[in-house]
Amino acid sequence: MNTITTHNLTRRFGDMTAVDRLDLEIPAGELFGLVGSDGAGKTTTLRMLAGILDPQEGELEVLGHLFPTGAERVKGQIGYMSQRFGLYPDLSVAENISFYADIFGVSGVERRERTARLLDFSGLAPFNDRLAGRLSGGMKQKLGLCCALIHKPKLLLLDEPTNGVDPVSRRDFWHILRELHTEGVTIVVATAYLDEAGRCDRVGLIHDGRMIACDTPSALTGNGTVSLEELVISRIGPSNSSLPPGGGGSGRGGSCHHGSTLQLHPPPGPLPSREGREPAVVLDRLTKRFDSFTAVDSVSLSVPRGQIFGFLGPNGAGKSTTIRMLCGILAPTSGSGSVAGFDIAGQPERIKENIGYMSQRFSLYEDLTVDENIAFYGGIYRIPPQRLKERTEWVIRMAGLTGRRHSKAGELSGGWRQRLALGCAILHEPAIVFLDEPTSGVDPLSRRTFWELIRTMAGNGVTVFVTTHYMDEAEYCDRLALIYRGELVAVGTPQELKQERARDGVLPSLEDVFIGLIEERDQKSD
User: Fold this and answer.
1) What is the pTM of this model?
2) Considering only CA atoms, which of 394, 515, 419, 409 is closest in space to residue 37?
3) Which CATH superfamily is domain 281-525 in?
4) What is the C-alpha to C-alpha distance for residues 478 and 306, in angstroms, rounded to an integer?
5) Which residues are within 8 A (CB) of 105 and not within 5 positions of it... i.e. 6 or more apart?
6) What confidence tens digit (pLDDT) does each residue in 216-253 have?
7) Pairing mode of beta strands 293-303, 308-312
8) Do the Cβ atoms of 441 and 192 come closer than 8 Å?
9) What is the DSSP string of 273-332?
10) Within 399-479, where are the H helices?
11) CATH node for 2-236
12) d(CA 128, CA 149)
């Protein structure tokens, strides 16, 4: 028996077809992965499967009931986690979980056991009484997971559930997901992490609202002939891709669709040289406390100009707090530091003039159009009119937004918003750019091209200070630093960090290095 059956499932928004005649069968108990570029139709599909959005054409049957007429009968058997969490910022962590337990009728021993287990896996137990609105982005994501899993549904729909979550928590989350899977729960998960897609029973690749490939990971990759990332890029990437279309399994979709893809354009004219002997960033025992909580604890490091410096750490480790101090947004409690030669405590305004900053939330104004957002930042940075015109056209081309410059930022997909935010952050051609999880939740093609742009910037002497939870991205960095519980745990090149933990001449992955260092630190604390 199928948990989900769709035939010619279609949903439009105005002139845009978000889901286009989708045929899909998901048997009971299957773990199904949904992969696709930003704006491909993943979220719209999940919302229809959850009964939140009605299809306009075609047939949809979920848990034996036709939707939308039968949706009310099975809503209590469906768990759904959206990208926007559905949290109540004025309630504590414990109160949010309790609220969802009430909704789903979870009580007694089961309620206590599931709550304790979820708080332990998510690392939120020490923050049980903290308001959800005061959590970091990654911690909010983990609380959203807890709320979605507080009951055991027959069908669990997860829209990029580990977006912005560190590797340790991702691993723990998938352990729980596997347990639910063995208990017979049908799971549909949209994900931007292709290693996660590889753990699914089957994977569907959706593009322009259509399913263009659907099969087991092994069949899709030709038993490892190509990686899932290569498959995705070959199917949705530029037509001149050197990769074979399909990579070993055509699935249901057969044909290869080439939509609008991000093209890398050089800036109009060379960026000014940033060479110099003075480091771009210098920190000496930098510390930040919030009441009795120490978020950053005596961090010291130096970052040369023109380097791509990766800043890694679990959610809540102190990464974003450190970056906010470096950007002159947050005053340190003690210690010292300089950015672009300016003191972070005494000259924060001078720092802001000489850096670009892209936060986890992209720093865009959703009610303004693409052009209006760029013009707003051009005014903040006091860019001369002619130069602003040139830079505006470059941002539009770089971000692939030529046909969407009059769209509101809030109407853009995650990938487009991300590229627009980067364009606004570097509009004034800063010497140093701080990127706080810039590719979180962005599809593989956009991530790869985004990093091409980062390398181009660094090649022109721009210093890039970046946080990321993608270990493949960490490999692109010249040097890495790992921060945990506010303390600097390790610093070195990716190769150096792996060599330090090699066993019998075999180098571990960066993810294994990351997890190993954290587990060792926890053991010492115990």
Assistant:
1) 0.77
2) 419
3) P-loop containing nucleotide triphosphate hydrolases (3.40.50.300)
4) 10
5) 76, 151
6) 999 998 887 888 877 777 777 643 232 222 222 333 33
7) unpaired
8) yes
9) P---SS-SEEEEEEEEEETTEEEEEEEEEEE-TT-EEEEE--TTSSHHHHHHHHTTSS--
10) 414-425, 444-459, 471-474
11) 3.40.50.300
12) 17
